[in-house]
Amino acid sequence: MWTASARRRIGGFEERFARAQASSVVELGWGYGLLQRDFLASWHHNRIVVTGPVDAAEVVAAADEVLGGAGAAHRLVQFNSDAAGDAAAGVFSAAGYQVHERIVAMLHSGVLPARVPNRVESIPFAELRPSLIRDWRADYPDDTDEQIAQLADRVTLYQRGADVSFLGIRDRDGEVLARGELYVADGVAQFENVITRPESRGLGLGRELVAEALHRSRDAGADLWFLIAQAVDWPRGWYRRMGYLDGHQVHAYQRTP
Question: Backbone phi, then psi, for 256, in 5-degree steps?
Answer without folding.
Answer: -85, 155
